[in-house]
Each structure stands twice: as structure tokens, then as C-alpha cells.
Amino acid sequence: SGNNNGKLDYGETVTLDMTLKNLGSENAENVTATISSNDEYISILDGTTAAGTILSDQTAVVTGAFSIKAAENVPDGHKIRINMEATDSDSVWNSSFIIKAFAPILNYVNFTVSDINGNNNGRPDPGETLDITVSVTNKGAADAYNVYGLLESSDPYIQIISGPVLFGDIAQNATVTQSFQVSSVVITQPG
């Protein structure tokens, strides 16, 4: 389910190819390899593969040897250590490698107020319905997909009319804007 960009992105399942070289003077027969990791941001879905017999001073390549899945909440740039143990009937070889994971980092940029249906002064006045346009940028190293935004206010004089709005997909280093409709409550003075 990867997007074929050659990177491990958040929430993505990918397969890993494996290359093993026999540095010894004898053939290594019935070689198997197993990967493991203690990293909380990775799940190993298929962690064992067979490489068969590797002749002395030769290389064996196993395409799609392992399958892993990155967590949805993996931090951008997180380095995942994966341990590998290869064995034949006589010997065990241990090694490890690092895979860097990528994720979006969404940041609020700014907002603008449009009250063209009111007095058009750019701020909420009592009784006005206006649009607040919010800009969000993706500073991460992966695209963000199907992004929704929700505007909330604790101000008792502001009512949010819009529910969640779809910002859509936000590519790396892209900025997207979306509008929320709000109204300012009419305040009646006593007396």
C-alpha cells in the first residue's frame, strides 16, 4: 500500500528487499533471515525470509523479503533501527540498519476576516455573519491526505456556523486555505 516514492511514509506498508553477501570461504546453505525492532513506530508484518544457498564470495538478493508498516503518528524524520539475524545450519550473523520515516507537519499560518455581507470593516461586529479564512502549511517531508479542519471558539459572543471543512490534500511545502462561516451574536443592552 505504499505510494512508490521510495520512502517510508506515515501509515504506509512497504516491502523491503534484502541483499546478503557470503564473505566466507565456504558455501552458506539454507540461509534464512529474520528482522526485529523495538521501535514503537513500526510494525513488522512479515519478518522472515529464505535466501537459499549463498556461494562463497557471492551475493543473494531477495526481492520483497520483508514487510513493515509505519505508524500513523510516526514523527517526521524519525530513524527506525531494524535488527537482522541471518543464519544457516552452522552460523548466525547479526546486523542492523536504519530506515528514516516521513510524515507531514501541519502548521497554522494566518487568518483573514471577510465581512462583505456586513459593514466590510474586516472585524466581527454585533449581528454580522462573516467568513474567517485560515491558511495551513505542510512543513513535513510527506504529503498530508484528506485534511479536515475544525474552528472552535470559547468566546460567548461568537457562534461557529461551519462544521469541519475539507482542506484536501496538502503537499510538502504547500499552503492551503479554507473558509469557516461564523456569526457575531447581537447583544441587547438591558433597559
Describe this structure in words.
The chain has 191 residues and is mainly beta. The chain is 0% helix and 57% strand. The strands form 4 sheets. A 5-stranded mixed beta sheet has the order 1-8-7-3-5, with no helix packed on it. Strand 7 and strand 8 form a beta hairpin.
Outline of this structure?
This protein has no helices and 14 strands. It has strands at residues 8-9, 13-21, 28-36, 42-46, 48-54, 59-70, 79-87, 92-102, 106-114, 129-138, 144-149, 158-160, 165-170, 175-184.
Distance between the termini: 66 Å
Assembly type of the shown chains? single chain
Average pLDDT score: 92
Please summarize the sheet with the most strands. Answer: 5 strands, mixed
Number of helices: 0
Give the strand order, joined by hyphens, for the main sheet. 1-8-7-3-5
- Our estimate of the beta-strand percent is over 45%
Based on CA atoms alone, the radius of gyration comes out at 27 Å
Proportion of helical residues: under 10%
Unreliable segments (pLDDT under 50, ≥5 consecutive)?
A: none
**Helix and strand element order:** EEEEEEEEEEEEEE
Q: Structural class given helices, strands, pairing? A: mainly beta
Instruction: Count the E strands.
Output: 14
- Overall geometry comes to rod-shaped
List keywords for this structure.
191 residues, five-stranded mixed beta sheet, mainly beta, four-stranded antiparallel beta sheet
